[in-house]
Structures are given as structure tokens and as C-alpha cells.
Amino acid sequence: MERVQKVISKKEVVNIVFLAMNVSMWKYDKLYELLKSDKCFNPIIVLAPRIVDATEVIRQHDIDSMKAYFDKRGYFYIDGYDVINNHGINLIDLNPDLIFYTQPYENAICKQYDFLRFRKSLFCHIPYAFIIVKYNWNYNLLFFNICWKLFYPNKLYVDYFKSYSRYGWKNLAVTGYPIADLFLDSSREIFFPWKLKNDKLKRIIWAPHHSFARKKEKFQIANFLEIYDSMYYLAKELAGKIQMAFKPHPHLKGVLYKHPDWGQKKTDDYYKKWEDLDNTLLHEGDYVDLFKTSDALIHDSGSFTVEYLYVNKPVLHIDVANVTEHFNSMGLLAYNAHYKAKSMADIKQFLFEVVIAENDPKRMEREQLLKTYLLPPNGKTASENIYNEIKQALHK
Predict the structure, then answer these.
(1) Torsion angle, CA of 151/154/155/157, rounded to 10 degrees?
(2) How far is CA 242 from CA 33, 194, 199, in A?
(3) What are the C-alpha distances in Å from 33 to residues 17, 27, 255?
């Protein structure tokens, strides 16, 4: 790794490849812009959709969504992925010096982009989500141990990696979480994603997770199969009081496509239902503006347990049995700042007594958590910290 770093440091221009999987997992806007403005770097986005639990239809949807997202922002990208044959471009042709991998898992994207193929490149990783669980696969995969730079949100993650990872902690830099830059930027123009511009209607997000299908896995936190109908009819029932956005985890559709009781038609029909009512909507992809313009979140997600704290609005966690057994200390801190629900009655109570009544006793707790653990260090944005870490390491 040191030998490769020395070679790259001598280059006049460093090629930095970002392997983009889908819009929801893309966390690099501000970093890309910083690198693009620096003549020492040549950032290149390569579309590399997730293939696990993703049919051709889903992969094509992810590609189309990424194209629209990057085109809107004027970002340069390469679309060389063959959906039908699950085949990517030859990255070697781009002479990649640094490669940012969205996910650390082997086989998450097509084999042409497997990190073991690139012996003359250095690997970087920013977590695609705020990691709140304590399992070995979050810290001690091969990728973590050979990664040049791991960019993580706060100092707690140094301890997690020291506990689980053989080498990964040595390459970890505490920089903050890049999507925080968008949440905390008060000058950023906000897109209003809701159907109705009526401030009397509270804007609620329901964000269900996908972890219910793999029975052999420990990590099972999702309630979707138990409440999918009830949540839709709750939104319909409260049409005069709320709007509700259905914001499914990006992997949920693929999991449902393969589920024996669902399949593609039932899944597509259910997703479409959320577009049909006047006070409901389906929201896939980028979610920063959805969060910033909302009044509350209801979820059983992983990363959103922390990410929604950046907007400091009421948030409800729909519990499963022993859910806290999965969490690391960051996860527990964030979870404890939530309201909790075990039933639809609890969800309804949260909507009426906390959101609609605007009675939010957990507000100060969330605010303190934000100040203590979630703000980027060094008085800079997370993207600036990552950018500076790269420049310093490569002597640029």
C-alpha cells in the first residue's frame, strides 16, 4: 500500500473513481465538487448498480435515476454497465488511482469492479449508511483491512474498529458524515417534494426497512409485512390532518420481488398505490429535501435512526423484539432519542399527541446528541475534512 501511495503521490493529476450504486447511497456531492475544483484531481463517477436482490428492472431503474440526478447537477459520469449481461467497463482504462467503494461487501456490484482486481489503486470508503449495529461484518471484512482510507463520522468508530478489525482502525480518519453537509447547509436551495403545499397538514415520512427475508441472518429489524396495509389505510384515514410519504429502503423492492407471497406485480401495485391518493406519495432516491421539509419520521430503519437527527424533528421507531441487541453504542444513543411503537395504536398516538399537537419532549435530547456526536470535527464540513485528508496524504 505504501509503495502504491508513493507512486500516486508523484502524479500531477490523481484520478479518483467513484463507483455509484444508486441515488440513495450517493453521499459525495460536496466532496465531488471540491475535487472537481482542484486541478490536482480528476474525479470520475462510474455507474455501478447493486446486483444483490436487484433484478434487471431494478438495476435499470437505479441507472436511470442516477443519470437524472447527475445530469441535473452537471456531474461527469460514465455509464458502461450492461444490465442484461451484468457486465461493467474495464476500469483499468481509466487509470484509477483512488477508488471509492460505496459498499464494502464482495459481490455487491459486478465482478469487473471487484477491489481485488486493482493492485495499482488505493481504496477509499465512506459508509453508505450510518452504521449502528455491532456485528463483525460491519468492521472486519477483507475490504476494511486493505482499505487505504476509511472516513467515519466520529471517534466512537475508532473504538468499534479496534474491537472488531485486525487492521482497519489504523486507516480510519474521523471526518464527519458527508450527507450532514447537505442537512446542515442553510444556504442550500430546497426542493419541495410534497404534493400539497398546505402547512396545516403535517408531513410524515414512513421509511420501512427490508431485513425480514433472510431468516439465517441475525439482523432482523423490519416490520413491513405486518403493517404495510395498515400504514396505507392510516394515511388514507387521516387525509385531513397529514400527508404521508412512503420512503422504502432501496433494497426493499428487490426483496419483495423475490418474496413467495409478493413478486413483481404485487410489489409494483403496492408502490403505485402510494402515488394515487391526494395526500400520499412514493419517494425513492435522494431524501435530504424530503427530510428537511417533513414534520416527522416513522421507521424501522438502520441509518435513518441517526440521519433524521440532523433535522431534529420528532422520530418514531417501530420496534421488533430485542431490537436493541443489534445496536452499537451509537445506535443505542440514537435509538434512545426516539419515541417507540409496538403497535398501530402506538403509531397513531404518536401522530396525534406528538406531531399534530406539537408536543415534543424529546427535542432537547436529540439536539444534545446532534451537538455531541454528529457535527463534523475541525470546524469544517465532513467533505472538507475528507478532501484535506486526501490532499495531505498525497502531498497535494
Answers:
(1) -60
(2) 37, 11, 10
(3) 14, 12, 34
Average pLDDT over residues 77-97: 93
Residues 39, 29: Cα–Cα separation, whole Å? 18
CATH number at residue 140: 3.40.50.2000
Q: Total domain count for the chain?
A: 2
Q: Which amino acid is at 332?
A: L
Q: Is the pLDDT of residue 214 over 60?
A: no
Whether the Cβ atoms of residue 277 and residue 239 lie closer than 8 Å to each other: yes
User: Residue 203's beta-bridge partner residues?
Assistant: 243
Query: Among 114-128, 212-226, 321-335, which range has the highest average pLDDT?
Result: 114-128
Q: Are residues 149 and 219 in the same domain?
A: no
How many other CB atoms are found less than 10 A from the CB of residue 144? 23
Burial 10-40 (b: 16+ CB within 10 A, else e): eeeebbbbbbbbbbbbbbbbbbbbbbeebee
Which domain range does residue 43 map to?
1-177+376-394
Domain match, 87 and 66 both: yes
Per-residue pLDDT tens over the stretch 25-70: 999 999 999 999 999 999 999 999 999 888 999 999 999 999 999 9
Provide the β-strand partners of residue 243. 203
pLDDT value for 238: 98
The whole-angstrom separation of Cα 49 and Cα 276 is 28
